[in-house]
Amino acid sequence: MFSEVQLDSLPAAKEVQPGLVAVAMSGGVDSSTVAAVLLRQGRPIVGLTMQLWNQRRLPELQGDGPAQHRCCSLDDVYDAKRVAQHLSFPHYVVNFEEQFEERVVRPFVQQYLVGRTPIACTNCNSDVKFEPLLRMARQIGAERLATGHYARIRRNERTGRCELLRARDDSKDQSYFLWGLTQEQLSRSEFPLGELTKEEVRALAREVHLPVAEKPESMELCFVPNGNYVQFIHAYSRERGEPIHDAAGDIVTEDGTVIGRHTGVHNYTIGQRKGLGFAAGKPVYVLAIEPEKNRIIVGEDEALRTSRFEIEEVNWISIEAPAAPLRALAKIRHKHEPALATVEPLPGQRARITFDAPQRAITPGQAAVVYDGYVVLAGGWIE
Length: 383
Fold this sequence. Notes:
Blueprint: E1 21-24, H1 29-40, E2 45-51, H2 74-87, E3 91-95, H3 97-113, H4 120-139, E4 144-146, E5 151-155, E6 162-166, H5 183-187, E7 189-190, H6 198-207, H7 229-239, E8 249-252, E9 258-262, E10 285-290, E11 295-299, E12 305-316, E13 326-331, E14 339-346, E15 350-360, E16 367-372, E17 375-382
Parallel strand pairs: 1-2, 1-4, 2-3, 4-7, 8-11
Antiparallel strand pairs: 5-6, 6-17, 8-9, 10-11, 12-15, 12-17, 13-14, 13-16, 14-15, 16-17
Helix pairs in contact: 1-2, 1-6, 3-4
């Protein structure tokens, strides 16, 4: 692996070239297959790969064993270049490290330190990938941006809005991470894999002999090399000259009885059972994190189940914000099965969600995404 990325000089701004599509190239099989699909359709393309994180930072986290595969590594950048060379289209690497650290990494650390559980991938899509990539696409003359996300976009002729839809392959659907996109972003974006299964994507990649056709999927956050977010938080804070001194506090039951000590609220998340540091004689789980009181509340599994909560920074993506409560499906985690709920819009880009049946481990910092069947109606951050 090379020690650094050689960034290419982007062409000077020019008039939009009709039909030209910029492809967000992650170096994986999905975005590489997008390029192949568009070329097969006879459409001109240009590849853009984002350099998001300096992989040489925080060497103490690298370890001596084999590196876990994660997105946006240097290997991925070079794989994207190999694909562009194989398919013969122009490709550029663009440096978004500053935006990524400011809008994704720092909020990730800050959220954990106040007892929340953030979703870096949603922040990355909403705050780093689409807005600057669409701007850069226009700079090099491209009308549209195509990515390897498993989701679909449909224009509703009656309302004039672009609708975000779940992917045909439910097992690969990524619409949960895309709820923050705007109408402008949706109108200029394409998700060519939305109608395909992962097996069909692999078959297409093999058919055109892509050098990444057998590449495994990325599983880890690109800026957490060993997969341990707590170690990352400490190492990153030390690097910034803001070392974290674990503020130990009480672990208490729902009635306030102290039954243990914790090692800092950022070490815990709602629903956690293992690693609590004490034996209770029966399974107990983290029910709530109270950073202002520096304590963790634990209890039995049944106490994790609640029905009502509120979300903030709500984005009504496929419809206008409704004037009255509506019935819909809502999911509170990427792998959560959507459940029936009533969604009540509130002032200030907020909403209240009330599930018909209690759901397990509704976690502050995660996202709640609201669906009408396959259509993504809205999303917001769980308070």
